[in-house]
Amino acid sequence: MAEPSYDVAHLGHVELYSDCFEESLDFFTRIYGLTESGREGDSVYLRAFDDYEFHTLKLTRHHTTGVGHVGYRAASPEALARRVEIIEGMGCGIGWVDGDMGHGRAYQFQDPDGHIFELYFDTVDYIAPEKERSALKNIAQRYHGRGVSPRRLDHLNLLAADVGAIRDFMTKALGSRVTEQILLDNGRLGGCWFTVNNKTYDIAYTEDHGGGHARFHHVTYAVDQREDVLRAADIFLENGVHIETGPHKHAVQGTFFLYVWEPAGNRVEVANSGARLILNPDWKPITWTETERKKGQAWGLKTIDTFHTHGTPPIATDH
Amino acid sequence: MAEPSYDVAHLGHVELYSDCFEESLDFFTRIYGLTESGREGDSVYLRAFDDYEFHTLKLTRHHTTGVGHVGYRAASPEALARRVEIIEGMGCGIGWVDGDMGHGRAYQFQDPDGHIFELYFDTVDYIAPEKERSALKNIAQRYHGRGVSPRRLDHLNLLAADVGAIRDFMTKALGSRVTEQILLDNGRLGGCWFTVNNKTYDIAYTEDHGGGHARFHHVTYAVDQREDVLRAADIFLENGVHIETGPHKHAVQGTFFLYVWEPAGNRVEVANSGARLILNPDWKPITWTETERKKGQAWGLKTIDTFHTHGTPPIATDH
Amino acid sequence: MAEPSYDVAHLGHVELYSDCFEESLDFFTRIYGLTESGREGDSVYLRAFDDYEFHTLKLTRHHTTGVGHVGYRAASPEALARRVEIIEGMGCGIGWVDGDMGHGRAYQFQDPDGHIFELYFDTVDYIAPEKERSALKNIAQRYHGRGVSPRRLDHLNLLAADVGAIRDFMTKALGSRVTEQILLDNGRLGGCWFTVNNKTYDIAYTEDHGGGHARFHHVTYAVDQREDVLRAADIFLENGVHIETGPHKHAVQGTFFLYVWEPAGNRVEVANSGARLILNPDWKPITWTETERKKGQAWGLKTIDTFHTHGTPPIATDH
Amino acid sequence: MAEPSYDVAHLGHVELYSDCFEESLDFFTRIYGLTESGREGDSVYLRAFDDYEFHTLKLTRHHTTGVGHVGYRAASPEALARRVEIIEGMGCGIGWVDGDMGHGRAYQFQDPDGHIFELYFDTVDYIAPEKERSALKNIAQRYHGRGVSPRRLDHLNLLAADVGAIRDFMTKALGSRVTEQILLDNGRLGGCWFTVNNKTYDIAYTEDHGGGHARFHHVTYAVDQREDVLRAADIFLENGVHIETGPHKHAVQGTFFLYVWEPAGNRVEVANSGARLILNPDWKPITWTETERKKGQAWGLKTIDTFHTHGTPPIATDH
């Protein structure tokens, strides 16, 4: 058995498209509680208060919704080089880009479903301006308490036609480990959760039943406490945000969750994992059967229909 | 700059000595909420409900209190071999032991202050007996809700005469990274927090002002929510456990904490770190000055005197 | 407008029937976390840790499930006399009984649907035996932390064929105030929430669609924090208790709730109301329309079907 | 024994003086999270989101700090008349005033220490303007989540030279019940907690060691959860507010508390009582001895010195 890889340090950022940009930006800043750290061209760079990098969300004005690209940070320049060699060998590389306001040069590639990824090491640390400086020097930015106010980017969920192909891809390209998965009765993978570090997952893929490609399911920021998720529910309620499902506890990964749709329709989650981490270097993936998943979430909540049908951008079969 | 090391996966277990064994065992099981997974000789093996290994606390009947040894698990057999070579080269190695009920062969060594460590890869996964099996298959053992009922081992705090020497030692021997430290006005390190993974720390050392050696400050298990720490305070109160300080929030590391003394006098903490993790592979250590530390904890609580004087085993200067 | 009445101090206790008594008793003590304070004949007297009276739940072995009787405590002997005179004048009185282990003589009467009530002033204060004495002298019994461990009895929900008739009855007989109600499109009351004090409600009635009489919907104990409700969900999950719905926040009354069925089928709730109280002496009832209620609970959870159909004892139409 | 009185419904509002008005107003609105509902003359009227009346805090520009007056609402016009008759008979009445923006005519009187009280029934209900209307019709105003954002006014603490005299006064004048008290070794009352309803207390008096008169100790608003208190601590920390002590749990009344000083120096508390209520109509006061109080708060925190010395307005002996 090969040694586990630690070449990739963590999920770095997500670029999200919005076709009603101003409303989306208002949602992410005033209601969801992220902070703008810069803007350039059609994009605004956003961050949670304790993200250490310049940004973790790049919100881009676009003619549709969905994900632009996903960035992971490598553990070192050498690790980056090792990964690029592997990815190029897999034949899915795109090439180097200069980076943007948030980080330096990055190597782009795509997954079997067509989602664009990039891997980088050189980054831009967030330097808090005076009024955003925390009273505690070990926090990247002051806790402002505006809106939901999550601490940091947590994970991403993408849709793919063939989750089994994704499992091969992610474990090879990023050296990700599979922590949990859903095995359907037809032998296909219904969902798969991956991690490159001690987080229980930084990306999940679930099967796209709609025939689309390169679609987005949701992005999630982490709050410190489950109470913050409950409080978020009231904030969303009072601001007229569409609450899709939750708060409740996932059976898979045990995360306490709440899903809403931001104004453009992209699904956004607020979550808390408690003290749960994957510390075991030879963790064996947990496999859930279709029967087990039909029991619903941890405390019995049935998974809502739109959770299986709504992705962004929308496709004809959503109607 | 060298690449960060990921040879060591995580803190595995702590052996604690008790000179009033039965009372200590009652504390750890009935009040603190650990579960006994085995006993052999003078030791009982204990675990939190979601520790994946057989045990994380080995409680041993002894003529005094303090720490027996500290175990870390390597990321792979190859990583273990690499580390042993480094440690032997440092001249602090002791040698291989066969392991005990909780894990396989382990390499023992000691830190400059005389604390005994061991590093192992072969371990014993906890297999829950029927009545301890969780309704959720991704949890090691059912959440029994007995006493404080923490989720998993979190970290350890040891005392050392020369914390600066420890910093050199830990970063070389285990490849640990320093996440935070206290730099005293006299130029000495007053405290240093280390991690081998994404946790903000798995071990901390603070200066032993008492002239002792190889002494123990505290061991900590993590609960999922700050509310669990508050609830723990009531459980300790109602069971007559000595609450030393807290609940409050640390300035260093931002952890929400509560310290008590188990019946034999060893300090035990309950803590919650929220969603805070060290994801940055080139994290620069946060350095606190003596002046900053004199401000007290995050919300102003003054550090209690015994926190600086009480360690186990006790020494003459405690009197 | 008449002055508000304060003759009735609070809901005192509920007698619940079980046709699988031992399992129900195990549920209420080991899992739900009540304490047995006495037993006599076919009944066991149970209490939450901070109920000031001897008992708040009388669990009685019976050939079926449902509610035996409901007890309210009057504010004074004079207030009790005033209420009895009014109730006798309403023609629904039954007469005086001697009381049981938990209180002194009581006047019994019935509501229009046939539920038995009793009103009493002389009561038995709970005197904690040594091992149940709290470290805090202002708490009735120590916080034992066993199972859900709620603080006190909160409220009761009964079913009735004609909720409008109940509204007239409760406001006259007990001097209860209506705090919230559901007005159906057909002009009938679908539900009505009553209080005799500053609690937002101590009893609720909802329409029995099944053609039954004197049936029971649920009994609720209050926990201090919403986190206790979430923790209760895990305790129920790990103990195989049927979770019907929740945790979620009610739109009506804003309570954070969780509903389960105890082994005999009686519905039991765990709830937290936060700091919400009815302090206004001339509070105007909040009226919810059928359309408003169809939106589901506060954060959008749809009301589960069994919530409208399952009552105890069961009736033929439940099938 | 006389029947308990329910003539007085609840604590209505507090008038607080500030000698740095703009800073105080900024604190109460932006940081503490109250909402301005009107201003007139030297005063701004403030409210928590679920206070049902127009205001609960009247902040008045003044040459010093401290309390202007305290308002209680009667349960009915008849109850108001009964109380005024009693108070006039006690010889401490001042007379009727027209009321202000927040309520109608009120009867003023003073306690033995010189604090001004008023009793009123006619009030002004808060009518939320469109943008402040909650998504839930049973809440007075939307939960805005700005700053600490407490739910409602909870209680007040005043200083008095002779707490024993206050006990006689409050029980006679308002019909308040004593729920807890501190009996000093010298036979004097060190503190006394009163309630007119089911809350565990709506006013407390503690002994003024400074030789002052009519001084103010603190005002408290209630949040729904203890987590809200912890979150408040971070908000205060990040906004440079002086945190005096807490968060911690009081031994007396068991409330989870946090004390800060607003910019003018008036002490302000954030608190949560959980589900604790005084439902017993013949509750016997809990008496704490000086020895018991020296143990500190519930979990052992020592009472901070300023808690005994700092009141507003300051007096010479504070120096």
TrEMBL record, chains A, B, C, D:
Pfam family membership, one: Glyoxalase
Domain of life, source organism: Bacteria
Record carries keyword Oxidoreductase: yes
Domain VOC span(s) in chain numbering: 10-122, 152-273
Record carries keyword Metal-binding: no
Gene3D superfamilies for this protein: 2,3-Dihydroxybiphenyl 1,2-Dioxygenase, domain 1
Transmembrane segments: none
A single MF term (Gene Ontology): dioxygenase activity
Designated name of the protein: Catechol 2,3-dioxygenase
Origin species: Rhizobium deserti
